[in-house]
Amino acid sequence: MSERVIPLVDQRSSSLPVTVPAQAIPATGLLGDALGRPLRDLRISVTDRCNFRCNYCMPKSIFDKDYPYLPHSALLSFEEITRVAQVFAAHGVQKIRLTGGEPLLRKNIEILIEQLTALRTRDGQPMEITLTTNGSLLERKARDLKSAGLRRVTVSLDGLDDAVFRAMNDVDFPVADVLRGIDAAREAGLGPVKVNMVVKRGTNEDQILPMARFFKGSGVVLRFIEYMDVGATNGWRMDEVLPGSEVVQRIHQALPLVQLEPAAPGETAERWGYADGSGEIGVISSVTQAFCRDCNRARLSTEGRLYLCLFATHGHDLKPLVRGGASDEDLASAIGALWQRRDDRYSELRASMPPDRGVGARRIEMSYIGG
Ligand code: SAM
Ligand code: SF4
Ligand code: SF4
Q1: Chain centroid offset of residue 45 CA
Q2: Is 48 near ligand 3, meaning CB less than 6 Å away?
Q3: How far apart are CA 37 and CA 135, in angstroms?
Q4: Separation of 248 CA from ligand 3 center, angstroms?
Q5: Residues contacting 322, CB < 8 A, separation 6+
Q6: pLDDT higher than threshold 70 for residue 355
Q7: Is the pLDDT of residue 210 over 60?
Q8: Res 221 pLDDT > 60
Q9: Would you say the CB of residue 367 lies under 6 angstroms from ligand 2?
Q10: pLDDT at residue 216 is higher than 60
Q11: What gap in Å lies between CA 48 and CA 33, rounded to an integer?
Q12: Does the C-beta of 234 come closer than 6 Å to ligand 2?
């Protein structure tokens, strides 16, 4: 049998061991990283699998039937995820977003949501639990997700034209089913629903206005995301990035917009409201307008590795501590030490990075770490 060669894009082996510092770092909620940024937002990937093959995220040529996804035993259990999340909450995290891969493919995800909703923020508030999904299973699952305690969902949808969307998800999945998922989420009370559209110049830029028109006045907040150079498999090129500012201009010409205040510090989306008061859109310009200076997000991979930046080349492996009898205080100290050293600001430095660290470097895949 011929051996399968995994292209040099599999980042999962690139993890660094995590040690507990000699001096304890208690979770006070006041943790700051090397650039003074607090820790407020935790994104947890619950699976590295997906039923779509969006070409900007999981191109079929790499993520084919032989791709070595993680075995179930490598994934953190729900109890382990909840324990780690509770330590993050003690450090000041106020919001948890579940992602993937496709998070709704993780069996019994409702049980994890129930466990996470029991967490409290440092000031005693219920933890805000949200989820990002491709929407394919949402019609079926929206009610159970709501009953489990999920607050809101973000649904990814890259166009309204069926042919464009089917080509982008590359599994021939129809728009109508995602739209039914969005309706089901709204009916279940998982609103306000946000819809994420990744804009690729030359691929779906003609969908910007139809999408804006469709969701205007519906209560759904449509957000346009610049196509990013995450991972190392999508063949990213700067000329396929349509700057967020251009998206705003194009919409503004047809549907006048006014700029709104950011919703919260560290909020990634620039907010624009329709001048006639019929709702708002968001623009996430991670490539052309870096927002690293306010970045308060940590990412936990499905196998328990902590990533301090979406563009990190290495994760920090918490699983040996979690499974090796470390106390919550040890975990808090280990996470605290990592956050204190964090100086990542990839998007701000992208253009000036040396070739081995810049665009095309061996970075973690979006499908592994989530958005
Ligand atoms: N499967 C779920 C989904 O698609 O919503 C959750 C995981 S997906 C990795 C999270 C978000 O990342 C999605 O909104 C997706 O569109 C976005 N994304 C993936 N690759 C991207 C890229 N290269 N540039 C910008 N956004 C990307
Ligand atoms: Fe799957 Fe989401 Fe990546 Fe598309 S963006 S391939 S739906 S994980
Ligand atoms: Fe945060 Fe890294 Fe993105 Fe900058 S590049 S906003 S530090 S995740």
Answers
A1: 8
A2: no
A3: 33
A4: 22
A5: 76, 80, 83, 84, 304, 331
A6: no
A7: yes
A8: yes
A9: yes
A10: yes
A11: 28
A12: no
Ligand closest to 154 (CA) is: 1
Q: For residue 225, how far is its CA from the centre of ligand 2 (angstroms)?
A: 14
Count of CB atoms within 10 A of residue 350's CB?
18
Q: How do residues 298-345 score in pLDDT, each as one tens digit? A: 999 999 999 999 988 899 999 999 999 999 999 999 999 999 999 999
Label residue 69 exposed, middle or buried (CB < 10 Å: 0-12, 13-18, 19+).
middle
What is the structure's pLDDT at 230?
A: 80
Which pLDDT value is given to residue 360? 58
Where are the strands (E) in 167-220, listed by range?
A: 194-199
Is 230 touching ligand 1 by the criterion CB < 6 Å?
Answer: yes
Domains of the chain, residue spans: 11-211+225-234+292-369
Indicate the top mutation candidate among 171, 182, 198 to test ligand 1's pocket, ranked by most ligand atoms within 8 A of CB: 198
Task: Point out the ligand nearest to the CA of residue 311.
Answer: 3
CB atoms under 10 Å from CB of 38, counted, come to 19
CATH code 3.20.20.70 for 11-211+225-234+292-369: yes
